[in-house]
# Entry
Amino acid sequence: MKKKIEDLLFKYSHASRDNLIPILQEIQDEIGFLSEESIVLVAKHLNMPTSKIYGLATFYNQFWFQPKAKYHIQVCHGTSCHMEGALNIIDFLEKKYNLKVGQTSRNGQFSLEVVPCLGACAQSPVISINGKLYGLIEIERIDELVKEIKETL
# Structure
């Protein structure tokens, strides 16, 4: 992993603090999350305190600090989805897979993320599993969806 990060940072050999977000985005795209090691390497590269980098990365919900799971579930929490029961879906998923929003299950099978909008308000509530949207979600249907996805992967 260190080699991948160093190779990426080499592309930003003349980078400044203005490039911090694009650097973090590329690292996350490359390795799937922002590791402690990656934050330390970026800090050295940009001559910045790690606390500043971590502070910026925690401010934006696009950054992850642990790998996403095999089945990454996103729950829309936009106004329409909220009104149609998104909080109940989140609660169900947290209990069902024994994890909290932003976490990955111990077995690495499931990760859960709440996002501001998935852009399908007419079908709210909406979830995404590994990037595929599912609308008009009812809690009773979630187990069935996960089973279908497991069979296709």
User: Anything to note?
Assistant: The first strand starts at residue 71 and ends at 76. The chain has a mean pLDDT of 90. The helical segments are 2-11, 20-31, 36-46, 50-59, 79-83, 86-96, 139-152. Residues 2-59 form one domain.
